[in-house]
Amino acid sequence: MESLPLHICHVQTLSIFVNRSHALIHSIALACLIYYRASFLLEDKGPKTKDTPLILPWLLVFASELLLSFIWLLGQAFRWRPVTRTVFPERLTDDDKLPPIDVFICTTDPNKEPTIGVMNTVLSAMALDYPPEKLHVYLSDDGGSPITLHGMKEACWFARWWLPFCRRYKIKTRSPEAYFSTSKDGNEGSGSSEFITERQKIEVRFLCMYVRVWSKRSLFVLK
Predict the structure, then answer these.
(1) Are 206 and 163 in contact (CB under 8 A)?
(2) From the centroid of its chain, how far is CA 130?
(3) Contact 204, 161 (CB under 8 A)
(4) DSSP 8-state secondary structure symbol assigned to residue 4
(5) Residues 185-217 pLDDT 10s
(6) Measured between alpha carbons, how far is 81 from 100 in angstroms, rounded to an integer?
(7) Given a cut of 70, is residue 103 above it in pLDDT?
(8) Residue 177 burial by Cβ neighbours in a 10 Å radius (0-12, 13-18, 19+)
(9) Spatial separation of the C-alpha atoms in residues 44 and 63, rounded to whole Å
């Protein structure tokens, strides 16, 4: 017996008609423009023509039009056949039948990729709605920065409270920085006093971690 699909793909027929009609009209206009430019450049005007414009500006305009036309052509790929999907997460198999997954996160320069951002990425991956025993998260720091190492130690410390909080109250925004910056009214999770109290405690721990990481970063910069 075949299992039910996890999603169904819906083709947007009206959008296909509109997008392809627009692409056809636009292509005809571009072809006429290119023909006009090319015929003007290849036209033999003779040595006595006085009103002939400079060739270099004309070539630059023609080259820019060709480049913009090529960029527009590349942008038509995702408009050619737009679709939407209806997903059925309730049809997923039991947790014991799900395969193990590995999540690899790469970073190299804490100046270009702030440590706090990397920490939030790691915490988000660790808090995925997936069986914990089958989820493995790896961080590859190509720069070998000590501030990144310190940040990961702080992230592991904070995860002891963040991960159970997300699973207990089914938090959808698993990045702590995004959650505490957009959910001030507690619109995720329960509205009970227990939830609000625990949320405030975790937010305080997150702010403390944030301050410790930035203060440590300042010390490394001064050294």
Answers:
(1) no
(2) 20
(3) no
(4) P
(5) 455 666 788 898 999 999 999 999 999 998 887
(6) 34
(7) yes
(8) middle
(9) 21
Convert the pLDDT of each residue in 122-168 to its tens digit: 999 999 989 999 999 999 999 888 999 999 999 999 999 999 999 99
Contacts 24+ apart (CB under 8 A), 133-139: 134/95, 134/98, 134/99, 134/100, 134/101, 135/100, 135/101, 135/103, 136/100, 136/101, 136/102, 136/103, 137/102, 137/103, 137/105, 138/102, 138/103, 138/104, 138/105, 139/105, 139/106, 139/107
Question: How many angstroms separate the first and last alpha carbons of the chain?
Answer: 65
The whole-angstrom separation of Cα 212 and Cα 207 is 9
Number of alpha carbons in the 13 Å side-chain half-sphere of residue 223: 8
Q: Per DSSP, which regions of the chain are E strands?
A: 7-11, 83-87, 101-107, 135-141
**CB distance 135 to 128 below 8 Å:** yes
* C-alpha separations of 1 from 15, 172, 218 in Å: 36, 34, 61
Residue 86 in contact with residue 8, Cβ under 8 Å?
Answer: yes
Sequence-separated (6 or more) residues with CB below 8 Å from residue 134: 95, 98, 99, 100, 101
Indicate the burial class of 150 (C-beta count within 10 angstroms; 0-12, 13-18, 19 or more).
middle
Strand pairing category for 7-11 and 83-87: antiparallel
